[in-house]
User: Which sequence fits this backbone?
């Protein structure tokens, strides 16, 4: 019986691997709900070359905002052809003094390449709180491991441009300042868990759109 179960398990693994190889791609059907393994596939008969082309990263984003920066994403929701392939991309435009605030991608690691300007970037180790921080110039790349807090800001005197690639078609994103101050959690609670005074919390909630 034990031998039979071992053979059955091995056959199941081989069958699943063989099945995966039979499918060249799985363009996301965005009309259906996302699943833990990605979006369901569009019918092959409805797939066109346009499903594998995305032009949204060729246009500079609007940096006239609070953070003086813009992020154009090519995650699966914007680029269905990425579905199931384990990668996504984005474009970062940073005006002078522009900043991409502390944030995480729970489901993917990130690599950045600087195209123009000078960008300071870093991440914080979850296990030791050590900070890995570097000034990046044109052509430099840096990697940010999955799930770790990281940031980028323009250190130079001209606008900066960078592109990022991530190891998941839908890596997720949570911006720390928004999570803390753009919510309806009572000000007193936020002050208690952040060790900030109530006046500062109210100020930050006012800037970022939080209530209570």
Assistant:
């Amino acid at each position: 019986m034990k031998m039979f179960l071992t053979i059955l398990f091995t056959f199941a693994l081989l069958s699943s691997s063989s099945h995966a190889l039979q499918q060249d791609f799985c363009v996301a059907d965005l009309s259906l709900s996302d699943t833990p393994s990605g979006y369901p596939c569009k019918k092959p008969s409805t797939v066109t070359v346009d499903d594998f082309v995305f032009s949204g990263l060729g246009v500079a984003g609007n940096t006239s905002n609070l953070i003086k920066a813009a992020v154009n994403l090519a995650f699966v929701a914007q680029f269905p052809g990425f579905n199931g392939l384990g990668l996504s991309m984005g474009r970062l435009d940073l005006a002078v003094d522009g900043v991409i605030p502390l944030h995480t991608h729970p489901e993917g690691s990130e690599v950045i390449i600087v195209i123009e300007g000078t960008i300071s970037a870093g991440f914080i180790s979850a296990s030791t709180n050590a900070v890995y921080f570097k000034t990046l110039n044109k052509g430099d790349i840096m990697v940010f491991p999955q799930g770790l807090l990281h940031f980028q800001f323009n250190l130079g005197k001209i606008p900066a441009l960078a592109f990022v690639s991530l190891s998941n078609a839908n890596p997720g994103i949570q911006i720390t300042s928004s999570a803390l101050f753009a919510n309806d959690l009572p000000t007193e609670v936020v002050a208690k868990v952040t060790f900030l005074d109530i006046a500062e919390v109210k100020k930050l909630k006012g800037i970022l759109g939080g209530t209570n």
Observations:
- The first strand starts at residue 69 and ends at 74.
